[in-house]
Amino acid sequence: MTDNRSAENTSVTEYRVCYEDTDSGGVVYYGNYLRYFERGRTEHLRGLGRTVRQFEDRGYLFPVVRAELSYRSPGFYDDLLRIETEVDRVGKTSVTFRHRVYRTEDRSLLVEGSATVVCVGRDLRPRRIPVEIRELLGTGDQEGKYGPAENTVPGSDCKPETGNREQETGNS
């Protein structure tokens, strides 16, 4: 995997599709694109000089509360993928990332979508995103360069599921 900044606020992560990522026909299983989005977010933060672990060590967790994907073209075993990630919106308690996954060989767009994460404490209750994290992500105010911030997370009346803690907090 590699990570580069292709534009001011977009990070690029490359990933080679493994056999385990595909169905019996050699096509990337649709659910794996969420894993690729996760890799993109993780590497985006790393490219900004921080890691998910550093946030967790300070008591800030960022579970995904919403994901949207649009499938454009299939990916296949051994394709080299280009995962583009950027921060779209920073709210008081949430961050929305935009993702695009391309096949590098022919620059075909395979999937595009977004994922919204919410800042929670170890008690899994929403918390305001600290100013230093907001600034790291590109905005320290409510009307950042990514558009008006949301006051609440979509569906914030619902608490993150607490079934599998590792899966919930997994590197978002």
Write the layout of secondary structure elements.
Elements: E1 3-7, E2 10-16, H1 32-47, H2 52-57, E3 64-71, E4 80-90, E5 94-103, E6 108-118, H3 131-137, H4 165-169
Antiparallel strand pairs: 1-2, 2-4, 3-6, 4-5, 5-6
Describe this protein with a few key phrases.
single chain; alpha+beta; Thiol Ester Dehydrase, Chain A; 6-stranded antiparallel beta sheet; 4 helices; 30% strand; elongated; disordered N terminus
**What percentage of the residues does DSSP assign to strands (E)?**
25-35%
Q: Tell me the number of helical segments per DSSP (H or I, 4 or more residues long).
A: 4
Largest sheet: 6 strands, antiparallel
Count of domain modules: 1
Which fold name fills CATH's third level, the topology?
Thiol Ester Dehydrase, Chain A
What would CATH call the homologous superfamily?
Hotdog Thioesterase
The tally of strands reads: 6
What is the general shape? elongated
Explained architecture:
By secondary structure, the chain is of the alpha+beta class. It has one domain: Hotdog Thioesterase (Thiol Ester Dehydrase, Chain A, Roll), CATH 3.10.129.10. It is built from 4 helices and 6 strands, in the order E-E-H-H-E-E-E-E-H-H. It has helices at residues 32-47, 52-57, 131-137, 165-169; strands at residues 3-7, 10-16, 64-71, 80-90, 94-103, 108-118. The protein has a 6-stranded antiparallel sheet, with helices on one face. It starts with a strand and ends with a helix. Residues 1-6 and 140-172 have low confidence and may be disordered.
